[in-house]
């Protein structure tokens, strides 16, 4: 049977890491400055004093211990609290494209075939650097790939949606491979002044090369099936957009960065995703208990524990339920692909695993794979 194969993956990890302690120190300095500056209004009850953050809360509530970022100095400067990434001229490779190209080169090297065998580039991620031209076309150009590329954004679920799109392309044109990249500068859409969410995200880029089983060499992973689902919710939202320029009063407002109702998201997503995985596995005739490994989206370690327990019907082992959120934090679309890239060893031919993502939209995608 002709199938789409995940032939290779790649990873680009940014040069800087910020520990919870470093992040919380900066946040608490910002809070102390704010409260000192507004002491009179706070005393008069006109302004609410800000509360400090703690490294212990962050780790306990999310499982995050540190995150990688493209710029550290700006984020941990209490006067700035945002990454400082200088704009580049139109003659230079864009920073988001640079990250994607690095991840793609890692994947291409592992694949061992020439880029002339790739016909499509999908840039599937949460936050594109600009409106147009598409990031994918710039990445395609930088890698010397002939064919076409386009961007797609399904927030944290972008990578599994990208795998599904690639699978459909390959079914209709088995002669060409697809390169799917997930560059994420999540630190640029995170509000580092918000106590509830300042710790959540990190930066990274991942890449996946998919091709037809008719062309694939030995190794890699057969895609057994893909399922996608979306259900509208404003519980994870970012209102940044070009209309904000026309409405200056909206510029810089907190809703132009990431905002979420974290508890609501947790409660809504766990049943939605667990049921989706179980239904998809059943449709494929898989014995759920025999799924060897889960590479879940990395948003919250407690959420992943719950989903894994529901899916496997027992307590998952550390090997079964891969965790990368501790060192990478939430990297949106890239999380499940980092997990897959770093922890796919130890599979015998025929053994099955699951790549699954979920997030804003709401959106969720499941991809069952079998070791070739
Ligand atoms: N430091 C210390 N305490 C903090 C804090 C911080 N940075 N932020 C919040 N708290 C406190 C709150 O004030 C609250 O105190 P209270 O109980 O006295 O009112 C308490 O900790 C619990 O806060 P809450 O925000 O409800 O925590 P939580 O356990 O729900 O964890 C998230 C928060 C965001 C980590 C968690 O809800 C989550 O990960 N949800 C899923 C999010 C998700 O998947 N999003 C997708 C994004 S793509």
Task: Write a brief caption for the model.
The chain has 372 residues and is an alpha+beta fold. The chain is 33% helix and 22% strand. The site of coenzyme A has 21 residues, from helix 3 and helix 8.
Distinctive features:
372 residues, alpha+beta, Peroxisomal Thiolase, Chain A, domain 1, nine-stranded mixed β-sheet, two-stranded antiparallel sheet, 11 helices, 22% strand, binds coenzyme A
Describe the model.
Helix content is 33%, strand content 22%. The protein is built from 11 helices and 13 strands. It has a 9-stranded mixed β-sheet with strand order 5-4-6-7-1-8-13-12-11, sandwiched between helices. The longest helix is centred in the last third of the chain and has 22 residues, at 262-283. It is globular and about 75 Å long. It starts with a strand and ends with a strand. Residues 53-54, 57-58, 61-62, 156, 195-196, 236, 260, 262-263, 265-266, 299-300, 303, 330, 359-360 line the site of coenzyme A.
Order of helices and strands: EEHHHEHEHEHEEEEHEHEHHHEE
Q: How many E strands?
A: 13
The main β sheet shows up as: 9 strands, mixed
CATH superfamily of one domain: Thiolase/Chalcone synthase
The first-to-last residue Cα distance is 13 Å
Order of strands side by side in the largest beta sheet? Answer: 5-4-6-7-1-8-13-12-11
**Uncertain parts:** none
User: How many DSSP H or I helices?
Assistant: 11
Shape: globular
CATH domain class of one domain: Alpha Beta
Query: What is the quaternary state of this protein?
Result: single chain
Question: Strand portion, in percent?
Answer: 15-25%
Give the name of the CATH architecture of one domain: 3-Layer(aba) Sandwich
Can you list the ligands bound to this structure? coenzyme A
* CATH T-level fold name of one domain: Peroxisomal Thiolase, Chain A, domain 1
């Amino acid at each position: 049977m002709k199938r789409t194969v995940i032939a290779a993956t790649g990873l680009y990890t940014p040069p800087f890491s910020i520990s919870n302690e470093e992040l919380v120190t900066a946040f608490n300095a910002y809070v102390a400055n704010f409260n000192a500056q507004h002491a009179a209004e706070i005393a008069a009850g006109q302004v609410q004093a800000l509360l400090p953050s703690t490294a212990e809360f962050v780790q306990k509530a999310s499982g995050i211990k540190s995150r990688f970022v493209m710029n550290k100095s700006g984020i941990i400067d209490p006067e700035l609290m945002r990454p400082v990434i200088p704009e580049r001229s139109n003659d230079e490779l864009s920073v988001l494209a640079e990250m994607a190209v690095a991840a793609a080169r890692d994947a291409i090297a592992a694949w061992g075939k020439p880029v002339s065998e790739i016909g499509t580039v999908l840039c599937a991620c949460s936050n594109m650097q600009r409106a147009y031209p598409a990031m994918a076309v710039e990445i395609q150009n930088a890698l010397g790939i002939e064919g076409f590329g386009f961007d797609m954004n399904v927030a944290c679920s972008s990578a599994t949606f990208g795998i599904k799109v690639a699978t459909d392309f390959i079914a209709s044109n088995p002669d060409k491979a697809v390169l799917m990249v997930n560059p994420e500068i999540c630190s640029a859409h995170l509000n580092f002044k918000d106590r509830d969410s300042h710790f959540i995200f990190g930066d990274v880029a991942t890449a996946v090369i998919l091709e037809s089983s008719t062309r694939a060499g030995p190794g890699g992973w057969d895609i057994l099936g893909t399922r996608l689902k979306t259900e509208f919710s404003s519980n994870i939202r970012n209102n940044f957009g070009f209309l904000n320029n026309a409405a200056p009063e909206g510029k810089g407002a907190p809703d132009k960065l990431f905002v979420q109702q974290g508890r609501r998201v947790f409660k809504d997503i766990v049943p939605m995703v667990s049921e989706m995985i179980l239904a998809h596995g059943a449709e494929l005739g898989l014995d759920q208990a025999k799924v060897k490994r889960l590479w879940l989206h990395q948003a919250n370690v407690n959420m992943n524990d719950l989903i894994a327990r529901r899916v496997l019907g027992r307590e998952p082992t550390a090997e079964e339920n891969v965790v990368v959120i501790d060192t990478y934090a939430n990297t949106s679309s890239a999380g499940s692909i980092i997990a897959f890239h770093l922890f796919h060893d130890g599979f015998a031919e025929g053994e099955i695993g699951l790549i699954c993502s979920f997030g804003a939209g709401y959106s969720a995608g499941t991809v069952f794979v079998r070791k070739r």
